[in-house]
Structure prediction request, 141 residues.
Amino acid sequence: MRHGEISPSKTGGPDPIDLAVGARIRLQRHAVGLSQQSLAARLGLSFQQIQKYERGANRVSASMLVRTAEALGCSPALLLVGAEDQQHAADVQWLTLLTQNGATELLAAFSQIADPETRAAVIAITRGLVSETSRTKARKG
Prediction:
């Protein structure tokens, strides 16, 4: 690859940088208490477009990144932080997990559980559900 060329995603899916930017938009949107519909209205877009940005399915142009940052009350740099950082791959993995439907709600609810034993039980139940789902998929596959 020559200098200046953009490398395509190795998986054929969204580029990791687009995923990270989208995840940061979602996290900032949640932090300021906006719905996708509210953010879309502020930007003159459909909520489906906001969903696509947050999933990394559509790239956010530079001008839209600036407008989105303004609508979210933050700097564009906040939405880009880590794009060149050594922690980028780990950030993308965690941020991508947080973009899954229900992830931030589950994390918010979990953070309200004060009792360590109850927290451990919730984790055990969740792991059990994951194991059962994997076994079911294996039987069907």
About this structure: DSSP finds eight helices and no strands in the chain. The longest helix spans residues 116-140. The two ends are 38 Å apart (CA to CA). Residues 125 and 131 are 10 Å apart (CA to CA).
